[in-house]
Amino acid sequence: MSGDATQSASRPVADGRGTEERHPEDVRFGERARALADEAREARKSFDPPPPSAADQRALECARDGVGPAVSLYVSARTGDRQVSFTGEEFELLHRAMNDWLAMYARCYGVDLDADFTVREAAEVLLRTHDVLDTAQLLTCVPERR
Asked: What pLDDT band is residue 113 in, cutting at 50, 70 and 90?
């Protein structure tokens, strides 16, 4: 993680409220967004598409272990006792993490995708489907539905 809690506490929040002290829960969620982004960046750097026989299993792992935690963090931030405020940077990192995992998901099926979905869009799909694998497929259209 970059920065410490003091540094994070003075960053402007994405909702434009300025630089007032951040709530500890906001800082905690922001730290988790940074960690998810770091994990996604490392996974994408070392990602090798699987052979066709392992594509479904690897795609499931990308959806479950990558897309799911990113979208879940967003949903938790928006549905808890209070709405969490991410900094603009933290929100962008969460967005990038989810899209990195969606790009890896698509590569499992041989599709190069420059994923640029919003976390909110993914959350809405997840809340309708209740299935992160279906969410990844519906967003990316990979693999094609039969």
From this structure: very high
